[in-house]
Amino acid sequence: MISLQFPSRREPFYSMKSKQDKLKSILPSGKKDKSFFELVYDTARLIPKGRVTSYGAIAAFLGSKMSARMVGWAMNGAHHVSPSVPAHRVVNRNGMLSGKAHFATPTQMEELLAKEKIFVKDDIIIDFQKKFWDPAMELSID
DNA sequence: TTGTTGACCTCTT
DNA sequence: CAAGAGGCCAACA
Fold first, then answer.
1. Which of A4, A43, A78, A79 has the fewest Cβ atoms within 10 Å of its own Cβ atom?
2. Is the pLDDT of residue A131 over 60?
3. How many domains does chain A have?
4. Contact indicator for A110, A100 with CB cutoff of 8 Å
């Protein structure tokens, strides 16, 4: 199912802090003392191949939609965590590859995306809205 | 310990 | 329209 929506500027149902506990139960690894970063990593690992999402969408999904910045910061450390995190599937809300400079080579992010049939022009993902995967829409939380 | 700095986003001048 | 500010939270000096 394809979500054609950007994260809405309306107050979304998932923005309530109380959802965090439910998140912890549906996300893979069972540790209870998850930091915000770990939640970010877990969510990112759920992004299907061939789909992308945005920092803000993950942040909103995790309960604080203003933490998009932290999601980016989390990705900064995503290279040396295990299991690996598909950081290339996370872009900013315009579909721009804002993080490509942090990959091993300047072209790696684009190449990884191309393998999943996601193509990029001028650092922007083509058909971003069709490739967009909103965790809040696709993962049912109650 | 305090301050600054981000792979961001939204609202306000 | 463009530009600024505020909010988030972890890392680092």
1. A4
2. yes
3. 1
4. yes
List the domain range (segments joined by +) for residue A125.
15-26+33-138
Residues paired with A96 in a beta bridge: A124
Res. A12: pLDDT tops 60: no
- Residue A28 to residue A47: CA distance in whole angstroms: 13
Specify the pTM: 0.80
Domain with residue A66: its CATH number is: 1.10.10.10
Please, how many CA atoms are within 13 Å of residue A14, restricted to the half-sphere of its CB? 25
* Structural domain contains residue A119: yes
- Residues whose beta carbon sits under 7 Å from strand B: A 6-7, 9, 54-56, 59, 65-66, 68-73, 75-76, 78-79, 87-88, 90, 92-94, 98-103, 109
